[in-house]
Amino acid sequence: MTDTEHTTRTDFSDADDTAGPADWAVRTEQAVLDAAISRAGRLGWNAQLVRAACEAEGLSLGDQELLLPHGARDLAALLSRRHDAAALKALEATPASTMKIRERIAAALSARLEAAANDFDASRKCAGFLALPFNADLGISLTWETADKLWRWAGDTSTDQNHYSKRTILSGILAPALTIRLFEGKEAADRFCARRIENVMQFEKWKAGKDFDAPMRKITDFLGRLRYGDKVA
Questions:
Q1: DSSP state at residue 23
Q2: b/e string for 67-85 if b means 16 or more Cβ within 10 A?
Q3: Contact 39, 61 (CB under 8 A)
Q4: Which of 7-11, 114-118, 183-187, 224-228 has the lowest mean pLDDT?
Q5: pLDDT attached to residue 5
Q6: What pLDDT is recorded for position 224?
Q7: Residue among 72, 160, 167 nearest 122 (CA)
Q8: Which one, out of 12, 13, 64, 213, has a CA that is 20 to 30 A from the CA of 104?
């Protein structure tokens, strides 16, 4: 890429009339992420990486602050969402409707783990970054986001407490499974996922027929009687 191309990419005045700041941001975020992925193995996942990747794309410090105000945290979110998109793309080959729920969960996990493994060095460095205590909130948020996308692909449309329980359980599998995939290999990750998927299936069997709304109904009935007496049906 030439210096002229770098300048054009980051200069709003030179952009196509039909392209706005949002278009510039999306294109440039992905270009910076590409540059970061190729450098992460050497530089780690940190402010130095962010600056090096932005410089590679011709961004000034001002552009960098506009594009990635939270630095390496923003870059980590971009990487996670790219891997989410790659996993969903890979899953298109086999529609979820053709599989049993156990197979859907296994396929979804495998696709997401392999998407991360395809950017092996960058994913390892980013995983270490997200494991730091002050980045735990971001790691949890991104894992939940991934779990939500995978469950939606699997056909889940629940809006009650099942919506949250399913994503909580899958998040609890995803985070350690990704670490195992990146640091111990595919076979170890596959074994871990197989064991945890069995836990998910046991949960699904346990909740079948349970009336989870009963406690809330008891509370509302009690409050109704306090206000209206025995007239409440």
A1: H
A2: bbeebbbbbbbbbbbbbbe
A3: no
A4: 7-11
A5: 37
A6: 61
A7: 72
A8: 213
